[in-house]
């Protein structure tokens, strides 16, 4: 892990193994952040990330039955869905989440308007095996950044490096499993009245009704053309996740609820009560890159105390943080 200004401030980057997934534990340097325990874990298998607060509590959900062993992605944290979100010609959510990524020690310049941030760069490129199922050369650079307040930012840069002159097309999502205290006490702000594709109804298009998105049964929706800021209010804990995104017009909201939870071998029967996936995504309008072109998509997560007024959560205050 390095800071944007200098690598000499590296405080901790430890590699350990949990089964066969290499895991890096990155902790912010004390001089950059007071609570030095805020941090994230990165799994090179899938380029997957988990995220903790200053009390070492997981802010992202990790399944109680998660399997830390290939070939499947770890059920939790943030997984990368590329080059396909959902079902299609490739395995569900694409192959990037089932590949070993490398640390990129020499990334090309990365324009950023902020300093004093700790980051690590991962890279994924075409393998011989993947060329058979998706015949395109690409460079996928994933920068994982921890902001001074402990915010977690993921920036993906995907470049078409085909030498045969061919374009390629992909869909994408940051499959983000948020840890929530009690799903029945969670409310999402920023998606109400929007159109969505319902994954439970063959992606039929609907318009969200009502002024609050709450949860009392299975949900699997792709909200379209969403705002760049979405708030997820954990009423029980009086804490709000604020998700900001850029280059990713859609947002997926998923919870399998009890029956599907029981059917998933790597998901605890009651885990659905403590998880909500809200995923910055690009699904409805796939991205096409010509050779030499690059696409960028960013998701940033922060945690703030929820505003609480007369028994009602105030979405405007949560969103203005
Ligand atoms: C969500 C999708 O992103 O991921 C759901 O919207 C899917 O349709 C879920 O069921 C989990 O997918 P997987 O492949 O990780 O079990």
Automatic annotation (TrEMBL):
Keywords: Isomerase. GO terms for cellular component: cytoplasm. CDD domains: D-hex-6-P-epi_like (cd09020). One of its GO terms (molecular function) is carbohydrate binding. It is an enzyme of class 5 (isomerase). It catalyses: alpha-D-glucose 6-phosphate = beta-D-glucose 6-phosphate. InterPro entries: Aldose_1/G6P_1-epimerase (IPR008183), G6P_1-epimerase (IPR025532), Gal_mutarotase_sf_dom (IPR011013), GH-type_carb-bd (IPR014718). One of its GO terms (biological process) is carbohydrate metabolic process. Its EC number is 5.1.3.15. It holds the Pfam family Aldose_epim. The active site is at 175, 279. Gene3D superfamilies: 2.70.98.10. Belongs to the glucose-6-phosphate 1-epimerase family. This is glucose-6-phosphate 1-epimerase.
